[in-house]
Amino acid sequence: MSANFPLHGQQLHQPQHFYNSNNNRKRRAAPTLRLRELEKALDLTKFCEQLRRLIDQPIKIPSTLSMCPAGQVAKSRHIPGKAKRDLLSVDDIWSDDLEKQKEEKSCLYNAEDVGEERKWLLDLLLEESDADSGGEEQITDQDLREILKIHHKRRKFQKEYHSDLMNSQYTYYGAGLISAKDRFNENQQKIVRKEQQQSTSN
Question: What is the per-residue pLDDT for 48?
Fold first, then answer.
């Protein structure tokens, strides 16, 4: 078995090792949890996929703009009291994570002392709403008359509201859900005790 030795005049080539000052430096730390959450929040992958699906769909003409014979008006199948769904609605972009988003959204409200009496209000606050659907309905004269009618009723009952002590128990009914300390139960118990004391003394 022969070995290859360098001939006369040839130099022995050996691998050169260069000193790298970075070798002594600490490796970069792994991304922090906050940074990973920020990257996840800025990820537009799902939005782009939804946009691509919308682009691939054929153009939808709203019922109010559909072609109708002269003299006929297209009838909308919109249900009164229910917001119309926009073609570019983002409601179903994160449809797979609705439960997770609802759980994260619940952290915005003080739900520690919410009983059955206010559970409906908390559920309403946690509901997913489509912000893009607003402003599509036009206010008619009938709507204005209804608003004015409700306004007069509200003013009438507002004058009589404070005359009844028991109405004061609802002071923190909604505000308690967005406050650091929910005072609804404490205030309600205080008013009920006060009312009982007054009724007993009478």
Answer: 84
